[in-house]
Amino acid sequence: MIEIKDITKTYGSGEMALQALKGVSFTINDGEFVAIMGPSGSGKSTLMHILGCLDIPTSGTYFLDGKDVSKMEDDELAEIRKDKIGFVFQSFNLLPRTTVLRNVMLPLIYAGVDEENREERASTSLLAAGLTKTHFSHLSNELSGGQIQRVAIARALVNDPSLILADEPTGNLDSKTGEIVLSTFQELNEKQGCTVVLITHEQHVAAHARRIITLRDGVILSDHRNRPGQTT
Amino acid sequence: MKFGDILQETYTALSANKIRSGLTVLGIVIGISSVIAMVSIGQGAQSSIQSSIQSLGSNLIEITPGAQGGPGSQVSSGRGTARSLTQGDADAIASQVTNIAAVASEVSGRYQITARGTNTNTSVDGVTSAYPQIRNIQIAEGSFITDQENTSLAKVAVLGPTARDDLFGVGAVGVVGQIIRIKNLEFTVIGITVSKGSSGFNNQDDMIYIPATSAEQYLAGNQYLSTIDVQATDASVMTQVQNDITDLLLTRHNISNPAQADFSVLNESTLLATANSITQTFTILLAAVAGISLIVGGIGIMNMMLTTVTERTREIGLRKAIGAKQGDISLQFLTEAVALTLVGGTIGIILGVAISLGVSYSGVIHTTVSWIAIVLAFGVSAIIGIIFGYYPARRAASLNPIEALRYE
Questions:
Q1: B318 with A95: Cβ contact below 8 A
Q2: What ipTM does the predicted assembly reach?
């Protein structure tokens, strides 16, 4: 469960200070599929960094599964990211010249999981992300964009995170493969109960989520339920 | 993160850029191998100089006359020219100084020698019977000069192998019994010595030995010695023997101020020490030059690692995003640097040993590869990896994951 309260984030200081977030509060329960929307400059990237424990807020509190992570040091944040958060990036960020399986096992290596379990867990999440065993031994740069992003989703899943954080996951894909990726998220959310937070600036991407939070100029503009429908 | 995983990551990272890794390793290979080769060549040179000094004779003390002119004179003709040593001095040393194994007198000069139409110019040494023992000379054929021949002023000669080759042809046999002419006087060859090889600038084989008394009588025309060779019983008593000889000769020559002595006493161990310090200086010099190339190799490692960190910024960002701590990242890059230097160090040691074996095989110098040099080189290469890998690793570890992920 995610509880954030009065989060602000200021970059720089003095007259040059830029306030990216001006007091944002919301709660996301386990199993929700939320889209955070907003135009560029609305503060959604900053919010994503804070939600993903890549950064800490200037003020306000952030409880992730009951633990206050808003004042943690770098290495403590790394620990939280390792155990509780799975990232899916716009630019995929797979290791090049490395097999699909090894890419997915990477988080487990840092988590200290032993070798037999690693392979098993990696293949489970690869299958869950809609890939087949034939893909496992491919090098990551041999796959298509949609397949690469699903490998990235599998990597995000492999640690059983409390939260899957997807930052413009369809930004580098054509609309058809984008749809496939988005339905993968939906499936994971519905069938496996994964909590998914999707950051996007596109209405039709956000429409896949069941709740849409819209940001503008560092504050929440709207927060409403959504009946996910197909927008083709 | 487990050690095996770090090794696998390192292997993947380094083999992704084989040429670059190879060239970087080459820098370390050159550094390490030249350190090992230089040190072993230096040590080889040292031991070869040592053994050639020792071939002059073990526990040897040489007494030579001082400069001609003596106290009060303004003109000096240089050391060794004075006529101050006599057979009496030699006998006194033999009888009065303790811990002496043998004493031999020498009257040396250079003369034109002829034999059956050939001729050569070489050193003729008038010596006594103790000379072979002191100077490590062995007889290959015939016999050496005896006391009896010295007493009777016999015109007999013992040839060194080079002198024999020059006078009678290379490897000539049946030379014993032949006649040679020194200063137009006939001497009968009674023996040939075993080759000793050359020591420094002196060819110890290009020599003719005759009785000292005969040299005084027929060649030099006076009763003075050019050298007295003394062999001490033991290396530990060299200083005592040297001091006693100095005191004895000062008394015999009625000189009260040691600074005005008309002779000098040379101790072989001081000669050895001097030669050792010279070769050591050269070894250090060579090793220092090689060490500089090792540092250059280390800078190559650092350069490569910094490039790698920049190239892999996004990868570092990703690793941090999925939970790598600063320690994990810096350990990974440090391991890459150390792996490069250890591979370079291993190849360098093999190459260095091969070079020094090659030098030995070519016969220039018999080199000695010491284990200390190898262990040291290996340690140094690991330390270089750590030192030159530390900064790039720190830099990688301290990258901000957000910026690293955005890096283009």
A1: yes
A2: 0.92
